[in-house]
Design brief:
Elements (H helix, E strand, L loop, with lengths): L1 E9 H7 L2 H14 L6 E5 L10 H6 L4 E6 L2 H11 L3 E7 L15
Antiparallel strand pairs: 1-3, 1-4, 2-3
Length: about 110
Amino acid sequence: MKTYHYVLASQRFLTEEEPLEEVLKERTRDYLEKQKEIDFWLVKQPAFLEAPEMQEIKTKCPQPAAAIISTNSQFITWLKLRLEFVITGQFQAPSDTIPDPLASLTTV
């Protein structure tokens, strides 16, 4: 299992109200220049929210939800400070209740 960290908010907030697209494009460009493997993903309607242990988090987030998921906790902390009105947390996957979050993913 791998630990994933996330920033969660409404899909509208993350994809329309915040200039998040340019932040993710710049980070992607930086990673490619440094030949570093991408460790963050934008996920619309994340499946991890369907796990029983995530129901409390799901109820706190306006739907439809979106998340930035990363294996880099520092990046998620930075995003939290930049975006403010988001929920952060972590989960381990794949597990009995949470599928691999990257299995059916469209990359950033």
